[in-house]
Amino acid sequence: MLRIGLTGGIGSGKSTVARLFTDLKVPVIDADHISRELVQPGKEAYTEILSAFGRDILADDGSLDRRKLRDRVFSRPEERRLLESILHPRVRKAIIDELARIDAPYCIVVVPLLIESGMQDLVDRVLLVDAPEELRIQRVVQRDHSDESRVRRILETQLAPDIRRRHADDILANEGQVDALRNAVADLHQHYLALADESSGD
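Above: the chain's sequence. Below: its structure in token form.
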């Protein structure tokens, strides 16, 4: 099975692109969804995070407040690395387990930190969702009800767009036109089906 790693910076539109592939009946594995499951109360990762960061990062109902935790580790690189050491190996294993269960010509693996986390070896190709910086900022401000300065600080901590492009096999421009994006995904779908057919014949 051909494995396509879908990645992109914050606000690029990865979730929208993933939904468009889902509409085409393509299996999608989402690392962020996996991460949310891993940190449910009672799970091993939840217990480790609670032990490492204390109860300040919990919501009133005892669940992990992911936004509070994200805000905390954002400006503390050593804590961010600690959190990643707890989550990334578990996310990686869960992705491998899900890949083993899928029977399809190809699948999409959505990993926002695909390059940074060293998970590129899990996929055969990298699909980058790219968008102009100002548009990405606008999307995140509207989506998260966040202030622009905070979003800009987040962008500064992420890989530069040119570095992401160098790692990409395919680049999908997402400038806000839904029909254009849907058509581009449909074209990629046909391309990936052809590539999968070629590889299965080897």
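The CA atoms of residues 156 and 186 lie 32 Å apart.
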